[in-house]
Automatic annotation (TrEMBL), chains A, B:
One of its GO terms (molecular function) is DNA ligase activity. Homodimer. It comes from Lacticaseibacillus paracasei (Lactobacillus paracasei). Pfam families: Pribosyltran, PuR_N. This is Pur operon repressor. Belongs to the purine/pyrimidine phosphoribosyltransferase family. PurR subfamily.
Amino acid sequence: MKVRRSDRLIDMTRYLLERPHTLIPLTFFSKRYESAKSSISEDLAIVRRTFAQRQTGILETVPGAAGGVRYIPIMGEDEAENFIAAMSKRLSETDRLLPGGYVYLSDLLGTPSVLRQIGRLIATQYREAHVDAVMTVATKGIPIAQSVSQYLNVPFVIVRRDSKITEGSTVSVNYVSGSSARIEKMELSKRSLPANSRVLIVDDFMKGGGTVNGMKALIDEFNAKMVGITVFAEGKFDGDRMVSEYTSLIRVDKVDTKANTLHATAGNFLDQNRQLLEVAGQ
Amino acid sequence: MKVRRSDRLIDMTRYLLERPHTLIPLTFFSKRYESAKSSISEDLAIVRRTFAQRQTGILETVPGAAGGVRYIPIMGEDEAENFIAAMSKRLSETDRLLPGGYVYLSDLLGTPSVLRQIGRLIATQYREAHVDAVMTVATKGIPIAQSVSQYLNVPFVIVRRDSKITEGSTVSVNYVSGSSARIEKMELSKRSLPANSRVLIVDDFMKGGGTVNGMKALIDEFNAKMVGITVFAEGKFDGDRMVSEYTSLIRVDKVDTKANTLHATAGNFLDQNRQLLEVAGQ
């Protein structure tokens, strides 16, 4: 039975949102709704316009016999600025300050709406980077990796500091923990990352950059390629960071453990990514 | 400017999908699209019909001045059966068998499409359970907890076996690891779970049930209430399980470490939840 336009638009929207960065042939929709390709093209033009106006994302058209449409999630500049400002405010809350100048983040990194926004924001940055896998280190980086992986629609892999029997054979590297200058070890299941993968590193918090540096070494061991590093928050660090090129959404710029206060502000994300935050309108 | 119906339907669908289990007043949409409430009601009737037909979920209407609509994600029975059959097949793959009869799951639990389906399936089971928080234990349960939390739109909390400075003050319990009969310790950040919360426990794999039992003890320590236990896979266990009431999506029923083979089949999920898997039609 032929499906009405209104029903097609609703189901099409849902179908596309669940499959970001995936090429879907027009013939698929044509069959699904028993409708002519010309009608489907008109539908998609409406979806494209609404997605652009509401800054939901870009609906790319790939022409030709092997073509179709592809939904690319984007966060617009206004929404990105508002989100980062809101998070900076949350991270400045006094009761987040922990002994040693650490910051409590578990509530934010367990909240679905926050994770959706972090994921969409970081996926916007790497939307043209052809990422094959997102990498993070257990435990607190996982929610971020998973959310980015949903919006880029690629797998994520979890590096561990402790050995677990459930990972099978692993490859391990030693790394210098930047904050404490200790030698530590991290490992990744051997079968989790194919050679030549393009890997995006994400984490919740970066101080000296030692952990991120360890992940870079692991990527080399797998003969894979790192395409970028983005952390939710960077902390204050006195001395040379082990990583120079990275992106941070938030920067904790003042920590006073005596007065028990801290302050957070925007990281370098916005300045680095202005261009990518613009949704091409019609 | 008044927004056309087609544009409204697309944006409304997106808006609802991103906010499951959230009551949205009709006046919100009416303002957002500068359209009469009667038009919005008609729009929502179309969305409701399409969501039901495509088994996307239920669009609940709450009447009255404080009313509105609420999107409840559901997985239909057919899709649930197909997904569980597909996963059983994947879990029967010989190369997943690890020493000690463990099963390698990290690839599946790092794949966005698999996690979306697990999340939607478990959220279907607890859609009327008024869950306040999803609980799991680090590391491998996290992706499942996060995905369920997205579809129920409630926070998730991560119990840890190792102490980390970034969690602040914690509450800990000792528990007996069922598989190895060792006494171990797990802890949860004190501020992460309010008293009287209704908590859903999820995990990736259950053998003796010791870990799940530990989480039950933790929930008691927080004066919270457990509303259910659902695991992705249950393994073979000789002896009495420490947990009797639980749901499993998959059951690994045969493991032969000598011949290096294993076999998985459907767990008790489908039998327990037939009724909840039916999407109320028009």
